[in-house]
Design a protein that fits this description.
Protein name: DUF3243 domain-containing protein
Number of helices: 4
Number of strands: 0
Order of helices and strands: HHHH
InterPro entries: DUF3243, Uncharacterised_YmfJ, YmfJ/YflH_sf
Largest sheet: none
Length: 85
């Protein structure tokens, strides 16, 4: 099963990656840019696997670039307390 199949697993996966990036000294700006790039990749290459991902994909599709950056930043905030930390 892929981490994309389950919303909670996906959030934990993202939380783990976020904590790893922070531990390695990645700045908030770089994390924000990476989150945007991940969102862009997912929107173009990955079919949503559950309702939550479908909503995010729909929002991403109708958003302009500034709004997409805001969505990416909100996802970072959402997963800050997730993961195995």
């Amino acid at each position: 099963m892929s981490v994309l199949d389950n919303w909670d697993q996906w959030k934990n996966f993202l939380g783990d990656r976020l904590h790893q990036a922070e531990d390695e000294g990645m700045s908030e700006n770089v994390i924000s840019d990476v989150a945007y790039q991940v969102g862009e990749y997912l929107s173009q290459q990955v079919e949503p696997k559950n309702e939550q991902e479908r909503i995010l994909a729909d929002l991403w599709r109708v958003a302009d670039e500034q709004e997409q950056h805001a969505i990416a930043n909100m996802m970072v905030k959402l997963v800050q307390n997730n993961g195995t930390r």
